């Protein structure tokens, strides 16, 4: 642990707090940037449930107050409307840095803003972590592997990324964010963690974020055809959100910097995914083919041996188990007028 004891018998935490030895550990103060978003809000639930304090920083670009509203009134919860591209002063012990749109439709909507969020936003959060001595975790992405020439992808693979394409604001942005994180670690002695997250789904995803699982589920529920892009033979590996959140927490609290792949190795073609959605939502659901988007990776599947060995983490929930949990949430929101 990074909590150490000074010569006068006082424990000093990462945020510089002094706690008399022998007294009950006070709650940790934790920043979650992007905490009003899909993954962030589930992470906030977990941190609050174990008794620690959370400050969410979010500009509500893709996040929603609804995702964290159940914590309003909890004295250990704070929500700040703030854009991470601007500096901020806070005193905390740990920073989970998630702020960044994750769906291709969202991150391509304003690509310059996306790269500013990844570069300036990450720089600001690293500067904050350095000033206060907080531990910093970056949520990077499997997109750093680009359209991979190695399959499955290990953390040692350097990737195959187009630097000038329509996805570059996101994947090159995240690659730069990883670089910044390692440079603050090497140069300023910052305690850092890097997670490379593979496609994740679950309750609270935006209904219309254009990602494949949310699209197929919403389409099947609305009795519209599921839109399969290209020939539907491209693959992805889908992880349920609670598995990811467990992984982020063990990574933050463990001794290893990473990067670590956090994903479910269960690999599906988009046609297979459509079939599973059909079995889960509506056996009469149909599909419709659409042209694929530019630079779409042909396949993606994590090699998670490193996380298994060093973090003792692996996902527990299969697609067939996780999908119904998301469908229940989507059903409620599609039926209610304000989503
Ligand atoms: P999301 O879009 O639901 O959440 C992102 C949150 O960040 C939103 O609440 C949004 O409002 C906020 N945000 C965006 N730009 C901001 C800015 N400039 N300042 C402050 N807040 C800002 O996406 P998510 O799926 O929850 O993803 C969370 C993180 O995980 C992202 O960093 C994403 O890159 C990473 N990730 C997610 C997946 C996935 O499949 N969900 C896969 C790989 C990586
Ligand atoms: N920063 C911040 N909050 C802090 C400390 C720094 O937002 O508490 C920002 C700061 O504005 C700067 C960035 O983080 O843009 C990097 O800070 P650092 O101190 O590493 O670099 P410098 O300020 O020397 O460029
Ligand atoms: N896709 C699809 N139909 C949709 C949305 C996406 O077939 O309605 C495909 C997309 O072309 C890609 C895969 O699903 O091959 C995953 O796309 P998503 O946007 O969910 O995430 P990505 O992994 O590309 O970031």
Automatic annotation (TrEMBL):
Record membrane topology: Single-pass type II membrane protein
GO cellular component: Golgi cisterna membrane
Top-level class of the enzyme under EC nomenclature: lyase
Keywords from the UniProt entry: Decarboxylase, Golgi apparatus, Lyase, Membrane, NAD, Transmembrane, Transmembrane helix
This protein's name: UDP-glucuronate decarboxylase
Keyword hit for Transcription: no
Family per record: Belongs to the NAD(P)-dependent epimerase/dehydratase family. UDP-glucuronic acid decarboxylase subfamily.
Assigned EC number: 4.1.1.35
Pathway linked to the protein: Nucleotide-sugar biosynthesis; UDP-alpha-D-xylose biosynthesis; UDP-alpha-D-xylose from UDP-alpha-D-glucuronate: step 1/1
GO molecular function: NAD+ binding; UDP-glucuronate decarboxylase activity
Location of the protein in the cell: Golgi apparatus, Golgi stack membrane
């Amino acid at each position: 642990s990074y909590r150490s004891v000074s010569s006068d018998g006082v424990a000093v935490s990462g945020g510089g707090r002094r706690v008399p030895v022998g007294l009950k550990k006070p709650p940790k103060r934790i920043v979650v940037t992007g905490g009003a978003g899909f993954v962030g809000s589930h992470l906030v639930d977990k941190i609050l449930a174990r008794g620690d304090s959370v400050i969410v920083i979010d500009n509500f670009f893709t996040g929603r107050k609804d995702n964290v509203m159940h914590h309003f009134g909890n004295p250990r919860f704070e929500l700040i409307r703030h854009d991470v591209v601007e500096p901020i002063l806070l005193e905390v012990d740990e920073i989970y840095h998630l702020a960044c749109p994750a769906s291709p439709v969202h991150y391509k909507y304003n690509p310059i803003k996306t790269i500013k969020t990844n570069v300036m936003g990450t720089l600001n959060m690293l500067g904050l972590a350095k000033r206060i001595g907080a531990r910093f975790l970056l949520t990077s992405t499997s997109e750093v592997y680009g359209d991979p020439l190695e399959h499955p992808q290990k953390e040692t693979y350097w990737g195959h990324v187009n630097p000038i394409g329509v996805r570059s604001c996101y994947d090159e942005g995240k690659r730069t964010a990883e670089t910044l994180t390692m440079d603050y670690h090497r140069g300023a002695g910052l305690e850092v963690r890097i997670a490379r997250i593979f496609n994740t789904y679950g309750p609270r995803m935006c209904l219309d974020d254009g990602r494949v699982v949310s699209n197929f589920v919403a389409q099947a529920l609305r009795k519209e055809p599921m839109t399969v892009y290209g020939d539907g033979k491209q693959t992805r590996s889908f992880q349920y959100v609670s598995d990811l959140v467990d992984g982020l927490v063990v990574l933050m609290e463990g001794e290893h910097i990473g990067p670590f792949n956090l994903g479910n190795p269960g690999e599906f073609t988009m046609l297979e995914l459509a079939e599973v959605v059909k079995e889960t939502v509506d056996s009469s659901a149909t599909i419709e083919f659409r042209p694929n988007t530019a630079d779409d990776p042909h396949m993606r599947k994590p090699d998670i041996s490193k996380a298994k060995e060093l973090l003792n983490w692996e996902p527990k929930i299969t697609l067939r188990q996780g999908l119904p949990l998301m469908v229940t949430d989507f059903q409620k929101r599609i039926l209610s007028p304000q989503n």
